[in-house]
Structure formats: C-alpha cells, structure tokens
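Renewal narrative, Specific Aim 1. Our central claim is that a sequence can be written position by position from structural information alone. The example that follows is taken directly from our test logs and has not been curated for this report. It begins with the structure tokens describing the chain, in the order in which they were read.
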C-alpha cells in the first residue's frame, strides 16, 4: 500500500508534493511543445530536450538536486528513454 502524502515515511508535505507534481506536469507540457517545435524546425528532439534540461537545472532556474540515489535512478531512466526514442526515430 502506498503511503499517504505527509506520512513520516515519505518526507513530503502536501504542499511539497503539489509543487513537485506541478513542476513535473509543466516539464511534460514543455517537452510536448518541444517535440512540435522539433518537427517544424528540423532540429533533433534530443537536442531540444538537452536545452530544456539546461534551463531547468541548477545553472538555469537554480533548482538544486542533492539526492544522489534518486539522481542515479533518474539518470538510468533517462538513458533508457533516450535510447528508445533514438531507436524508434531512426
């Protein structure tokens, strides 16, 4: 069973969870727009994704990300998605 928001096991308050979901949703919307932009301009979508990552990273918007284990998992997940997307579009 999944723990509830604000439970001692998760470490998230309801406000933090709402903010995280909002940021994630906005990122997905920006990525969908980036795909359409990629199709119109002829740029590879991975190049646009890289630019989005630079903009929302620590040097862009200043979002700090210090959880090393989660970084590793997200990095592997991103690598898998990049390889799948690259394989399907070539």
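The sequence written for that structure reads:
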């Amino acid at each position: 069973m999944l723990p509830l928001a604000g439970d001692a096991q998760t470490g998230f308050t309801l406000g933090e969870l709402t903010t995280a979901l909002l940021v994630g949703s906005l990122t997905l919307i920006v990525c969908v727009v980036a795909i359409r932009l990629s199709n119109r301009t002829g740029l590879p979508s991975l190049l646009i994704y890289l630019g989005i990552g630079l903009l929302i990273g620590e040097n862009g918007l200043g979002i700090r990300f210090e959880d090393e284990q989660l970084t590793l998992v997200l990095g592997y997940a991103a690598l898998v998605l990049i390889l799948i997307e690259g394989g399907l579009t070539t």
